[in-house]
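task queued by scheduler; priority normal; single chain, no ligands, no partner chains; default sampling; output format set to structure tokens
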Amino acid sequence: MLVGLGPGSHDHLTARARAGIAEADTVIGYVTYIRLVADLLEGKEVIKKSMTEELDRAIEALERARQGRKVALISSGDAGVYGMAGPTFEVLFQAGWTPDCGIEVEIIPGASALNTCAALVGAPLTHDFCAISLSDLLTPWPTIARRLDAVAMADFVVALYNPKSGRRTRQILEAQRLFLRHRAPETPVAIVKSAYRPKQRVEFTTLAQMGEADIGMLSTVLIGNSNTFIRHGLMVTPRGYANKYEVTDGERATREGEKAGRSLSTGLNGWLAEIHASGLSAAELARLHKLPEDYLAALLAEGLPAEESPAAQEAEA
């Protein structure tokens, strides 16, 4: 069983995770994770491993399972999000494991850091978001930097995992540098350390000041998008309802040119009609919308979809 513990407090441990640990003969995990559930481990074989021994944990789990023992391999957060699920399957496949070989594998999900940290600061993930780890222990820095630059330009809300450690201190500053190429200096940032654990700490700052904040290995950094705001101590990313509706005196009204239950007038079909009517070249549209020129050239070459032609729109009206 690959068990996600969630943030670490027993209040946020799922019933299935608790049951999985109770069923296990052997519990294997990083020493800090073992400590989080120490009171649930009485009478069990407990195998503690260091931070960089993920493959060793998976190998130990496979060996115990081959001996007929029921094993709980634990991770904080979710086992499939920067957790032990990936390394374990790599070890299993290299050993020739198949689902029908007699060793059953169950993944027990848990809340990842981006969920738990978001809950502590408000609603920052209400619109599109992604997660990027700044750890370059296994991933080349150019790969990480390309991902940071791409999501910063694309205006995602971003959760940064593994932002800083005793030896890795510059990565968070380089992330800040890349984001400032595309985002306003006043972009809201929330830093959550040890969510739902005794030393929990929440700090709000801005992208410009992020490098001066208290950030460590137990921190998760949430960087807002261009619409994210902080009000009354809460970080919120709007879902986009204001693009379609107005609310006045408790009454909701659809904005002019918009239709309830239909795509925005600036959604795909409306946008296609706009670019075809603009008279602009693919190169000009690429600069305007920050999209690949070859993509826009292909759209212009395809012509306007039949349902978006002027005649079709007039008939619908």
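post-processing summary
- The longest strand covers residues 188-193.
- The CA atoms of residues 297 and 304 lie 13 Å apart.
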